[in-house]
Design brief:
alpha/beta
C-alpha cells in the first residue's frame, strides 16, 4: 500500500524527533511492503522565519491533499514577543480548524519498565496505567466569540464557551467507539452544575448512551475529575470532555506517567483523517544536542497506522519494539534512572528500528 504523508518538522527538537519517526515508518514499509511518501512543509516558528507567517496556505493545501499529517513541535521563546495571532502556536489552532480535526486522542500510559517514574504511590498506581482522554478540539472557549468591551468595572476581555448538539454528538461517537474497543467504560467530564454548555453536553452524551448499552457511562464534574486523576487514576478507562477541560486534564494525566516524552497523540477528523504528534513542546534548550526523547513521536506513528490506516499489526510492532528497548534498559536523559543505559535521540531511534 502507498501512503502520502505531509510532514511538518516544526521548531526546536521537532526536526530531530520527526527524523527518527520517519526511520521507523520506513522500516515498517520494508517489513510489510508499504510505501510512505513524504512531503515536507512548514508551520510555526520555522514558517515565520522562512515564509513570513506561522501557517502558510501551501502548508494547509498539502496537508488537505495528504492521507495523514505528521507534526513535530512548534513554538519557542524566540517568537514570544509577537502578537498572539502571529505566534507559532496559532498555527496549531489554525491547522486543526482548516483540516476539521475535531477529536484529540491522548493516551496516558505507564510502561511497566518506567513505573518507578510515576509520582503517585505504588500502592495506588501499581505497575501500569492506561487511560485514553478524548478531547473535543475545534469548539468551546478556544474558538468562541472573544474580544474587549466596556463592562461593569470598565474595560474587560471576554471569551465565550459554546457547543452545538452536533459538535457534542460527533466527539461523543468517537468516545463511545473508543470505549467499545477497550474496557467499555466511559466517563464524561463537564461542569453541568454551573455551565449551560455543560448541561447540554451531559444531556447529549446521556442520550447517546442508549445506542451503546454495553458501555458503562458515568459523569463527573471537572474539578472532581482533576482530583480523582491523582487520587485513584485506575478508575478511568476512557474520558471524554470539552476542549479547555481536555487540555488541562490530559496534561495532568501525562504527568502521572512520569514523562511527557513518552506520550503520543492523534487529532482526528472525518473519515479517520488525522494529524499525529507528541504531546510535548519544542524544548529549544536541548535542540540540536541529540538529547530529545523520540519515543512519543514514534508512538504517534503507531497511532497513525492504527487509527487512520487500520494497520493494527504494524502498530503493534512499533509499540512492542519500544517496549523491548525500554525492557533492555535503554533510556534518553528525561527518563534515565539508576542502572539504566543513557542514549541519545538517534541511538534510541536506531535501537527501535533494530527491534523491528
Amino acid at each position: 500500500m502507498d501512503f502520502n504523508l505531509a510532514v511538518i518538522k516544526g521548531d526546536g527538537i521537532g526536526p530531530e524527533i520527526v527524523d527518527e519517526a520517519i526511520k521507523v515508518l520506513n522500516k515498517i514499509g520494508e517489513k510489510y511492503d508499504h510505501k510512505f511518501n513524504f512531503t515536507y512543509v512548514k508551520a510555526g516558528g520555522d514558517a515565520i522565519d522562512n515564509e513570513g507567517e506561522c501557517l502558510p496556505n501551501k502548508t494547509v493545501e498539502v496537508c488537505k491533499n495528504s492521507d495523514s499529517v505528521i507534526l513535530g513541535a512548534v513554538g519557542g521563546p524566540k517568537w514570544d514577543d509577537l502578537p498572539g495571532d502571529q505566534r507559532p502556536e496559532k498555527a496549531l489552532l489554525g491547522i486543526r480548524e482548516a483540516l476539521g480535526l475535531y477529536a484529540n486522542l491522548r493516551p496516558a500510559i505507564i510502561h511497566e519498565a518506567l513505573s518507578e517514574a510515576c509520582p503517585i504511590k505504588k500502592e495506588i498506581i501499581g505497575d501500569s496505567l492506561d487511560i485514553m482522554i478524548v478531547r473535543e478540539l475545534t469548539g468551546g472557549i478556544y474558538f468562541g466569540e472573544r474580544g474587549y468591551r466596556d463592562g461593569k468595572y470598565g474595560n474587560e476581555a471576554f471569551d465565550t464557551e459554546s457547543y452545538s448538539e452536533m459538535e457534542i454528538r460527533r466527539i461523543g461517537k468517537i468516545a463511545f467507539d473508543t470505549a467499545m474497543a477497550r474496557d467499555k467504560k466511559l466517563c464524561s467530564v463537564d461542569k453541568a452544575n454551573v455551565l449551560e454548555s455543560s448541561r447540554l453536553w451531559r444531556k447529549v452524551i446521556t442520550d447517546m448512551a442508549k445506542d451503546y448499552p454495553e458501555v458503562e457511562l458515568t459523569h463527573m464534574y471537572v474539578d472532581n475529575a482533576a482530583m480523582q486523576l491523582v487520587r485513584n487514576p485506575k478508575q478511568f478507562d476512557v474520558i471524554v470532555t470539552s476542549n479547555m477541560f481536555g487540555d488541562i486534564l490530559s496534561d495532568e494525566a501525562s504527568q502521572i506517567t512520569g514523562s511527557i516524552g513518552m506520550l503520543p497523540s492523534a487529532s482526528l477528523g472525518e473519515n479517520s483523517f488525522g494529524m499525529y504528534e507528541p504531546i510535548h513542546g519544542s524544548a529549544p534548550d536541548i535542540a540540536g544536542k541529540d538529547m530529545a526523547n523520540p519515543i512519543a513521536t514514534i508512538l504517534s506513528m503507531a497511532m497513525m497506522l492504527r487509527y487512520t490506516f487500520n494497520l493494527n499489526k504494524e502498530a503493534d510492532d512499533i509499540e512492542n519494539a519500544v517496549a523491548q528497548v525500554l525492557d533492555r534498559g535503554y533510556r534518553t536523559a528525561d527518563i534515565k534512572s539508576e542502572d539504566t543505559k543513557e542514549v541519545g535521540t538517534k541511538e534510541m531511534g536506531k535501537l527501535i528500528v533494530e527491534c523491528l
